[in-house]
Amino acid sequence: MKIKPHTTGDSFPLLKRKRISNTGILLMITILLFFTLYFASTIYFKSSNFAKYSVFFNLLNNKAHLLLLALGLTVVLITGSIDISVGSVTGLVSMVIATMLTQEGVDAIWTIPASLAIGIVFGAVQGFLVAYIEIQPFIVTLSGLFFARGMISVINAVSVPISDKTFMSWSGAKVFIPFLYNERKNGTLDIAYLTPASIIAIVVLIILIITLKKTKFGRALYAVGGNPQSALLMGINVRKTKFMAHVLCGLLAGIGGFLFTLLSPSGNPGNGVAYEIDAISSSVIGGVMLSGGVGLPIGTLFGVLINSLIERVVPLLGITEASWPRIITSAFLFIFIVLQSLFIGAGSKKGLKLTLQRWMTNLRHVFSRRKKNQPSS
Predict the structure, then answer these.
(1) Tens of pLDDT along 27-54?
(2) SS3 of 190, please?
């Protein structure tokens, strides 16, 4: 007696591949976009040594601080919230560090807890107002943006260079990767390296990936962003989850400010201006949905790398205006927002097809009514 496999119209349903989620599709698009841009750049700008290992790793070395800010935005965006104060917090941290190091007897090691404290305070205050007082997050964090930007000028209205030997040794440190190198024309080796800021950013990225995937807090973030009412019925403390998301975002902004100061060792009233736009763009291009509930930290990493790549490529095209990299990044942001809208529409019972059918049905009704109302000749 032969036993036939149980089917419901499809042959061998157990062998059917699992449908890729919206998160997976957006992540695949981001990764494909990055490698397409990068390999195209290595071919088109061959004379600029784009294919060197050191150039590739410098994409992260130059944007380690942005990765921290974007990861913070990833956390709050997953919950359906937002924080537009992270750029100003970065500028405030850099000014506080620079001012601290101009004082006699202040050791550079104290700049670390100061940076973390600033970020946590901003995150906690804004998170409390958003989660427990239920004020719109855009309004709350916009106020935080103006407050931080004003505090920078209050502390010091002019640029403050950093000359502390300990801090400058941190800023100039490099961790070389011996097996990744290219030989120069003069016979010397161009060895790829990571800066301390990049190493910190990678460690934070790994911790956040594990946190979102393996912990109860990480699953709560996605549940709250997906559907707060359902999350509440599941026993998740929605307010506490949103509060902790903003605190974590503030903490990462504080660390990002510290890493930014390592890259650019000075305090300046203009530091961090519009960095929140770059962070949001990197997160969304990395596959984080503005509607909440969808996003992965690894996608945010590739979003930051795309941002860094654009910033490097644009001058090679002969475009010297500093605003053009951000304009191009904004264009990519617009494209990904449109893609997200399509995926949201495709999330209904019959997907995008159902949405289009309803639209065409409504359009047909409009034309039929107009035809009935036309006077007969």
Answers:
(1) 888 999 999 999 998 888 877 778 889 9
(2) strand
User: Which pairing describes strands 189-194 and 175-183: parallel, antiparallel, or unpaired?
Assistant: antiparallel
Say yes or no to pLDDT of 324 above 50. Answer: yes
CA distance 249 to 74: 8
Closest CA to 307 of 340, 274, 346, 354: 274
Element holding 95 (H helix, E strand) = helix 86-101
Band of residue 377 on the pLDDT scale cut at 50, 70, 90: very low
Alpha-helical runs (H) found in 234-350: 238-263, 275-285, 297-316, 324-345
Q: Compute the average pLDDT of residues 285-294.
A: 89
Write the DSSP assignment of 143-176 as a string of letters: HHHHHHHHHHHHH-SS-EE---HHHHHHHH--EE
Read off the pLDDT of each residue in 329-353 and give the average, rounded to a whole number.
69
From 272, 350, 259, 297, select the one nearest 65 (Cα to Cα).
Answer: 259
Q: What is the pLDDT of residues 6-19, one digit of tens each?
A: 444 444 444 344 45
Which domains does the chain show, CATH number per domain?
22-346 (1.10.3470)
CA atoms within 13 A on the CB side of 14: 2
**Percent of the chain at pLDDT above 90?**
62
Q: Report how far residue 137's alpha carbon sits from residue 80's, in angstroms, rounded to the nearest whole number.
A: 10
Beta strands at 189-194 and 266-267: parallel, antiparallel or unpaired: unpaired
Question: What is the per-residue pLDDT across 86-97, written as a single tens digit (0 to 9) for each?
Answer: 999 999 999 999
CA dihedral 325, 329, 330, 336 (to 10 degrees): 170
Q: Which residue has the tokens 């912990």?
A: 215
Cα–Cα nearest to 135, from 74, 81, 75: 81
DSSP symbols for 340-373: HHHHHHTTSTTHHHHHHHHHHHHHHHHHHHHHHH
Which tokens go with 252? 């990462």
Q: What is the pTM of this model?
A: 0.85
- Amino acid, res. 7: T
Alpha carbons 371 and 170: distance in angstroms, whole number: 75
Residue 70 has pLDDT above 70, yes or no: yes
Phi-psi region at 236: left, alpha or beta (left = phi > 0; alpha = psi -120 to 50): beta
